Amino acid sequence: MQKKQVNKAVIPAAGFGTRLFPATKVVKKELFPIIDQDGRAKPVILAIVEEAISAGIAEVGIVVQPDDQEIFEDLFKNPPKKELFAKLSPQNQEYSQYIQELGNKVTILTQEEQAGYGHAVFCAKNWVQDEPFLLMLGDHVYTSDTEKSCARQVLDVYEQVNKSVVSLTKMSAEMLHKAGCVTGVWQKSNSILEVTQLFEKPTIEYAYQHLRIEEMAEDEFLCIFGLYLLTPQIFDFLAAHINKNFRERGEFQLTSCLDRLCQEEGMTGYVVKGKCFDTGLPDAYHQTMIDFRNVS
Q1: Residue 20 and residue 1: Cα distance in Å, rounded?
Q2: Model confidence pLDDT, tens digit, residues 73-106
Q3: What domains can be seen in the chain, in order of their start residue?
């Protein structure tokens, strides 16, 4: 298979944020503030876009609800009002101009019907076209343990293996109900895995029976970290589910299509050298506010 350059990232941000209600009645969860390592308050979505651009991505597509398009456009495309800009510190004036430059690389896409995460990804199909792309969760931020960002690590693995890559992290059995989980065969111990199955939020019983991996502790499993490098064939499997109205838990899901992609094309798992911070749940968001700025 011919290797194609990865130029685009997709960030689904069209959910209702029900787990953060009532705050999400007035503020989209992707616009909740976090404090970065420089002490700057910024919306979560801005930190995710910065992660993508710093990894070498040229264009970022953000999938939003139609009613939210204007507020996302305002963040990335419009400068602050003159009165506000005049009151900003010189550093924040410079940062404001930087956001406008980022905005030139951002396209706002829409999901007309909120029919699940897989459906939101599918809404980026025409924009992505026939290219591999980086898929990023809209409520996760990352810090790397190395000089390479977490997203850059995933892109580098894709360049080595030339097939879809799912980022992974180790989780205890008691956390499996919150995450997608994979199993497979180590290609490079504790780093790179040939994935043989993906499963969304397995029970502990299913995980112990089907998702165990050699060389890992008995109560430890590999779960999805939140970054994917996907070939465009994923859209074919998503389209098949949508056309057949095949829903899981009432919505069009991504993980079962990822498993199909794995079976058809093969998939590599990569244990990221870094940390993932969830901003989509109240307790997790609270902990992210404490830890994200101070992580080493």
Answers
A1: 43
A2: 999 999 999 999 999 999 999 999 999 999 999 9
A3: 8-291 (3.90.550.10)
